[in-house]
Amino acid sequence: MKKGVMRPGHVQIRVLDLEEARKHYVDLLGLIEMDSDDQGRVYLKAWTEVDKYSVILRESDEPGMDFMGFKCLNEAVLDSLAEEIRALGISVTELPSGDLKDCGRRMQFVAPTGHTFELFATKEQTGKWGISSVNPEAWPRGLKGMQANRFDHCLLYGDDLEGNLTLFRDVLGFDLAEQVVDPEQNRVALFLTASMKAHDIAFIKHAEKNKFHHASFYLETWQDVLKAADLISMTDTSIDIGPTRHGLTHGQTIYFFDPSGNRNEVFAGGDYHYPDHETVTWKAEDLGKAIFYHDRQLNERFLTALT
């Protein structure tokens, strides 16, 4: 049941060298630098996004994800969902407007898998980059690199998947679009959506809490994914796997690493989901085909390279 969470709003990623990260996310991925703040954080967006930013880079001595935020329909939804989260026994901290630049108040909490999430309803809207809202052209000139369309989702690793399912499905109103189950029918992966997309957030079972697998960005076509692969080679960027297709979600994909070791994905295509669709189930013994549909086997790096 939808409860007013609209979409992924932003992700704050820790990087070891801010200037190297800026080159990667702007020149290679094609995000647009929008702002910075007095903490030294850099704010980026993809060109189709109407909010001012969706990716925040923070320099740190350890890579990974600080938090992921979801945008809600309005401030009343924000308050209502915060109360429901508290009723589940999870502490919620209200962060004031302006704590993130040009963003309203945020309700921040730690999920059962140890990852930090937040909800917000207000952020400055700058519109699609380089495109008017009246008689808009097809695309803006001056885009760089892979020309990422939007920040799409994150995949995170952690231990308590059932706790996360209760939080995201029963409290926040996400649908369980796809899952992976082991022979005993225990869930070992969740793909959850608040929209019509194949997923807005995904989790894979892992012994350690609070591990970051990747942040994903949407491209328009398979040809764009192949171009991304060319750019990865042209820039000697560290590649994980691809181009290939997923079984889960059926997206066309390639994975690679930023200079700090954080994994990125760009992908095109993929399934859609409506609330009346039943959950798609994959068997854990067929996980190779579920993740990499063509090779039908997992590479060790994909499972173990986490930040």
UniProtKB/TrEMBL annotation:
The gene is xylE. Residues 7-122, 150-269 form the VOC domain. Keywords: Aromatic hydrocarbons catabolism, Dioxygenase, Iron, Metal-binding, Oxidoreductase, Repeat. Signal peptide: none annotated. This is Metapyrocatechase. It catalyses: catechol + O2 = (2Z,4E)-2-hydroxy-6-oxohexa-2,4-dienoate + H(+). Belongs to the extradiol ring-cleavage dioxygenase family. GO terms for molecular function: catechol 2,3-dioxygenase activity; ferrous iron binding. InterPro entries: Catechol_2-3_dOase, Fosfomycin_Res_Enzymes, Glyas_Bleomycin-R_OHBP_Dase, Glyas_Fos-R_dOase_dom, VOC_core, Xdiol_ring_cleave_dOase_1/2, XylE-like_N. Its cofactor is Fe(2+). The keyword Iron applies. Its EC number is 1.13.11.2. Homotetramer.
